[in-house]
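Researcher: Structure for this, please.
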Amino acid sequence: MLFNSPVFILFLLLVVALYFSFPRARMYTLAAANALFYAYAGLGYFLLFALIVTSVYFISLGLRGSRSKLALFAGLAIVLGNLFFFKYSIFIIENIERLANFRFDFSGSFLEDRMILLPIGISFYSFQLIAYLVDVYRKKLQPAKSLLEFWVFIALFAHSAAGPILRGGDFLPQLRKIKSIAFNNRRTKLGLAFILLGLVKKLVIVEQVAPYVNDYFQNAAGLTGVEAWIAAYLFAFQIYFDFSAYSEMAVGIGFLLGLRLDLNFKTPYLSSNPNEFWKRWHITLSQWIRDYIFIPLGGSRVANWRIYANLILAMAISGLWHGAAWTFIIWGLYHGFLSAGHRMYRKLITKLKLESFTGSVLYKVAAIAVFFHLTVIGWVFFRANTIQEALVMLKKMTFVHQFNYQPEMLSLFALAAGLYILHILERVIVSRFGRLSLWWQLNIPVIIRGAIYAVVATILLVFLFRGEGSSFIYFQF
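Model: Predicted structure, token format:
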């Protein structure tokens, strides 16, 4: 059930109406909504998801007992076994075949076509379950009080397909006060604003950019150097606006229900270095990688070479999390080396006592421009179908020699530039949202505001009902 579909809008309206009509039954309303939302994608995968959640819940009851370590290993085995089977089994088999120069015969089995459909949101709910098990085991989190509470926490329809990744310490206390949540006009307006923002990003921006990205990457070998750069630029904005659209709609749905979900993006393409980027891009995943991989490996408390190795390994795991393909692993390694390189660079700057230079506005602008292009280069591996295809595009981007200025190419370059300007405006609006909202309320007459809202709603409805929208990119992860 896509957020950008009429079916979901009707579903959401029904859920919100029931939620506020029957306050005492809110947990049951959300539990049923979660089940219906997930079952809509496939009854079999819903039953599997429910079985995994139920199993982990009952296993987690033993995390505070004398066999807590055994319970932890059992819970992790179920979660990781489910994840590895659906997401990585074919990848592992094919790489074993490649190394051994041997091909397994799966004829007559369900693996005959060498494809396993991924359950929606499997990576997100797996990481959420892992965090829950580890936090309860470490006594950093009080366990869920019931299977109902645990199901609503893990399977909340607002985020279950593509995040943000929720933490029990932040979300379970909210569920325990859910009956006392009162309808709030201001919070509802804020929720609707986030949902509308997400719909505009997805329907008006992403759906228009995606066809060009698909065409260019399908014809990577035939692109000129300039076209390869345009393809990479457009994909950078496609994936940002697509993923942030889903995340912001999830936050908006949370506001409608009186629940707080974490923002996942804070204008990441205005980052000047890798450390800043990962505090702005897919924030909840970055925090998960930090807390459950980087810090357990030793974090920054070990020798320098270990810190660099930990950064690279953590980012490689992040790349593998995104997909069972070497292109994703290389993308993760690339960002790992960027992070390690930036740490070395900062040490050099400190040693040479050049901090005042790096604090200048000119340096900041140059650093943002350089790192944005480094990020765009990385996205080529993320989007390309094969490593060879990515290398072909990067070669063309490195040795730009054909300047075939066709009208379409110029218009697409202008589109990419316009999207970056829009990204900057997004930062300005978010940082001044309170003041701008107050100005809007005080200085724009109600009639004009209503007319603008009506126009925006009409445009979105036209996009919604003109056909089934495309899936969000991160649904495949």
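Researcher: Any notable elements?
Model: The two ends are 16 Å apart (CA to CA). Residues 22-180 form one domain.
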